[in-house]
Design a protein that fits this description.
There is one protein chain. Helix 2 (about 35-45) runs antiparallel to helix 4. The chain folds into 2 domains: about 15-75; about 95-280, Rossmann fold (3-Layer(aba) Sandwich), CATH 3.40.50. The protein has a 7-stranded mixed beta sheet with strand order 5-4-3-6-7-9-8, with helices on both faces. Strands 1-2 form a two-stranded antiparallel sheet. The protein contains 12 helices and 9 strands. It is α/β, with parallel strands linked by helices. The longest helix is centred in the first third of the chain and has 13 residues, at about 35-45.
Length: about 280
């Protein structure tokens, strides 16, 4: 016998009590129930989480908070409800139709920073740019660089263009529709890619499975279909001394390394903050 779904807290509460009730209800749907409640309350109040905790816990809970809680109880990602997600040094606007930026992907930017050291890439290519996550973070890291983002999704490209404009990078970032690098000419100092890498039979949390775009998640039975397309394209795209950095699933290092080595590339592995294999650095 299954337990009934949690219900959102009633309206008419103060922020402190509403947060406690939401935290309790989120325990069934989230691994970070208190954080989720605080982020949604801050969004409902039109303030930051830090300001909420310092100044607004005794405010009345705004009427928009309960609907936000109900959406989270339906497993909708927090980033889709608030419309924003921080990544590296930038804040991105995100929404349905594009992959939610994840902290694990910062391992790719960290790897790029370590690779270039005191140097800086002049040209950057992001294959599967989504809402602009990796490309715009890299352009913020290297203010003298220019970049190109490619994606098959027009929804994602529109978000990326909007984020570039909001961050003041529209003169340095351009975006094109495409199937990976099929139509891309030229060479780049830094190539970034976070392709779909989930096997079609794998189980995902409801908030990912039911809300994020399947086209940005799944890549055939073994999750490697898109790496098979990307790997042969990399050698012609890499400028002399350039590097390609690809995100991988935690069990895919050996298989994707083999695909890259078959193209004559040298490959090293980088781990994320959770000590999971996360990025392959190809030169």
């Amino acid at each position: 016998m299954t337990s009934p779904p949690p219900t959102p807290p009633a309206s008419g509460r103060g922020a402190r009590q509403a947060l406690a009730e939401a935290t309790a209800s989120f325990a069934q749907v989230s691994q970070t129930p208190r954080l989720d409640a605080e982020l949604l309350m801050a969004h409902a109040l039109g303030t930051t989480r830090e300001s909420l905790l310092l100044r607004h816990l005794d405010d009345p809970a705004p009427p928009t908070f309960a609907p936000f809680v109900a959406r989270r109880l339906d497993h909708e990602p927090i980033a889709y409800i608030t419309g924003t997600r921080g990544f590296w040094t930038i804040e991105l606007q995100v929404g349905p139709g594009a992959l939610v930026p994840r902290a694990d992907s910062e391992a790719l930017i960290e790897a790029a920073v370590a690779h270039f050291g005191a140097r800086a890439p002049a040209t950057i290519l992001d294959l599967g740019v989504g809402p602009g996550t990796l490309l715009l973070a890299a352009l913020d890291q290297w203010p003298g660089a220019t970049g190109l983002g490619v994606d098959a999704s027009t929804t994602a490209l529109d978000m990326a263009k909007g984020n570039a404009a909001r961050l003041g990078m529209e003169a340095r970032a351009r975006f094109e529709p495409g199937n990976w690098a099929d139509t891309i000419a030229g060479q780049f100092d830094l190539i970034l890619a976070n392709p779909p890498y989930i096997g079609t039979g794998e189980t995902l949390p409801a908030e990912v499975r039911d809300h994020e775009p399947a086209s940005a998640l799944f890549a055939g039975p073994d999750g490697l279909d898109d790496y098979r397309l990307i790997a042969p394209q990399l050698p012609r795209l890499m400028a002399p001394g350039g590097v390609a950095i690809l995100e991988i699933g935690s069990t895919q290092a050996e298989a994707v390394t083999a695909l890259l080595v078959a193209q004559g590339l040298s490959v090293t592995l980088r781990y994320d903050l959770g000590n999971n294999p996360r990025a392959l650095i190809a030169t």
